[in-house]
Amino acid sequence: MKLINNIINSIRAAANYNPEAESPPQCILWTDKEKLWEKAVEVLKGEMPELLVLGEYKPEVHMGPAIWLRVAISGLIDSYKVPIGKVPVLYLPGVSRQDIRAVESCSEELMPLAELQYRGVIWSQINSRDWTPLAYLKTKKGGLGLNIQQDTQTIEALERALVKLLFEEIDSLKNEYLDKDYFNALLTGGDTIRDVLNWINDPDSFKKSKSDEEWEAFVEICISKFQLNPEQDTIYTAAEKIAWKEPQWDSVWDRFCEAPAKYNAIPQVMRNIIMPLGIEPDRSPQWNDQQESALRKELKLLVGLAEHNARDRIIELEKTHGERRNFVWAASGDAPLAEAMYWLSIIAEHTQKIITGNITEIIKAYEDWGWKVDNAVSRALELVKKQEDIDAITNAIRSIYISWIDECARNLQKAIATNPIKSVPNEHKPGECILFVDGLRFDMAKQVSENLTALGYDVMYRSRLSELPSLTATCKPALMPIADELIGLEVDNEDFCPVIKETNQKALSQRLESLMNIKGWKVLKHGDYRKEIEDNAWLDYSHIDEDGHSLGWRIVQNFSRYIDEVVEKVEILFANGWSRVKILSDHGWLMMPGGLPKVNIAASLVDSKWGRTAAAKPGALLDVNYYQWYWNPNVHFVLAEGAGCYRANTEYTHGGISLQENILLDLLISAPKGNNNALLTITDIVWKGMRCKVAAEGQFEDLRLDIRTKSAMPETSIVMGVKEFPSDGITSVVVDDDIYEGKSAFLVVLDENDKVVYQIATIIGGEQ
């Protein structure tokens, strides 16, 4: 039972009487000379409809002078009616029992209440004294008999925290020693260490967020537990105590180390103090900054070194700086170069070997270990944000990576020139959904596979070579289940796009979608992934390649987000009833910060030119290898050799032949065993104003409904409360602000782990 309920019961119990010997009391008088209960009464009014308060004339809140109270309990006032079965309770702040006992000397203002002491009862202690909060907590007879300290500071802290205390469970209070620190901590939220960290992180905002009582309680706790007064000492005093490893501050430091991102200003606070001599590096951001600066200089010195020397130096630097990844400065984002060294060392180790051989051998080597080089490059660049750090990592990457991708690309080009690519047909089974991801490079697909496997999905995969040239216009249609309806013409092929056999129209997206529908394939739209009567479906997720062309090498800074989004799409598809999901991509890409090597080609000899591909004019003689177009072997194209690019300063491109552009990983995913969420179906969505009523069928036990503006982000929820599906499968949620009316959002269904297992787009307030 909560304290508030116990107090209410105690007050109401004061009206108990012996019907054989007594008349029922007409009211309960609650005297409080020191006004110690005043703040609590504001809360109690919401739980006790029979409660009236002596004070200014405010009948709308059941408050008024003595004469008004007297009339109110008589039932003659429209604004207050005594609840049936309840005895009116009159709270009298500033009034003691003695003030109304002596009728002859009672003040004129209280005179109307004096007579009520005879027709009513007074809520008081057994010794007839007024109940105070302290007395109620400590007294065994009539009170709770709790273990509470009775010094002045504890009493003051109790007064400040009384409203919070009302909602504490009595059983938990019985197990506590109630002193000033307990009440102060209760008022500030119960997590003193978190509050101290928030204060150090942003003292002004922290103080503004607190009421006067909460701030006073916080100050008292800091003085008591940490020997620091936030009213007199600065956050730099706190930082000094942490640096000096004062014992009482170890818990503060440990909590900061657990989640440094929550307190991102603290490292700078510690930089602004003078660190004591001999301090251990784990508490010195200055030491970490010095190490980062030294490493930055070392990485810049790699420019001009022979490749093998650059690799050796990177491996040495990893041994020196790798330990810093174990310090909090890495977790706080202040050691990006130390973190990047892990990935640079992987690049250095693996690029000592060049991938070569026939096509099968090259694919096997890349599948086994070669992709790890590309993954490490992306991961290293993903970590750095400042330009000076980007420049340092770029220098390191270019010193050992650019020649590796160039040599490996030349070996693959040579293998393909002597043994042209043969297309591997895609077979599609009923109940399968193809998730097409434009530009899902092998290393990204590998990470998607690992993440899905960790979630319990059964993932099968196969490596393959993309069609040529590795452009979306050529490769995407070849993956589609209507590929046999397309053909490549020998004329007008500058963009390497096939045409539809029946119409000779270019196979553009809208036409391909129409053809898919004709052939019985459902093309899923954003937000509606339901499996209905269709056996198969196709879903596009295509902004990876689009971002690459606009962002250049900076695409890798979204690396983790792309992977998470693909995994989420798979989970949503299974939640919407699909039994298998196949992930396919059209091509990968070459990425090099600072630009790929420039290769020249005469503009007069080509009809069109991309980053790595060019369509030669008829009769033009170029001293390079010619390759057959996938859609028509009579049409040829040329490409930049090695890792070269026809355009200067290009950091992201595709269309040529290289490990990164052409070796792809297809994923075939089956639902994890025991996955019942795939059997959930939303059958009806009805809006009435801002309330959305939803009906579900299937396995909806323990599932809950939410509405979000961004389906994967819980913080974008716009409902007043997430609701669980009851046994009939029908629930409703209310959008808490009508500013969203008419805007699009997502209905999302969450499992017990708050994971999205189903989503569908909707218009707030109903279709417009």
Tell me what you see in this structure.
There is one protein chain. With 768 residues, the protein is an alpha/beta fold. It is 38% helix and 16% strand. Strands 7-19-12-6-11-10 form a six-stranded mixed beta sheet, sandwiched between helices. A hairpin with a 3-residue loop joins strand 14 and strand 15. Helix 8 runs parallel beside helix 10 (180-187) and helix 17 (285-300) packs across helix 22. It is elongated, with a radius of gyration of 37 Å. It starts with a helix and ends in a 5-residue tail after the last strand. 38% of the residues are buried. The model has no long low-confidence stretch (mean pLDDT 89).
Question: What key attributes describe this structure?
Answer:
38% helix, five-stranded parallel beta sheet, alpha/beta, 768 residues, elongated, six-stranded mixed beta sheet, single chain
- Euclidean distance between termini CA atoms: 49 Å
Low-confidence stretches: none
Number of strands: 26
**Considering DSSP H and I runs of 4 or more, what fraction of the residues is helical?**
25-40%
The largest beta-sheet arranges its strands as 7-19-12-6-11-10
How many H/I helical runs? 29
Largest sheet geometry: 6 strands, mixed
Describe the global form.
elongated
Mean pLDDT: 89
DSSP strand content: 15-25%
Radius of gyration: 37 Å
Structural class of the helices, strands and pairings?
alpha/beta
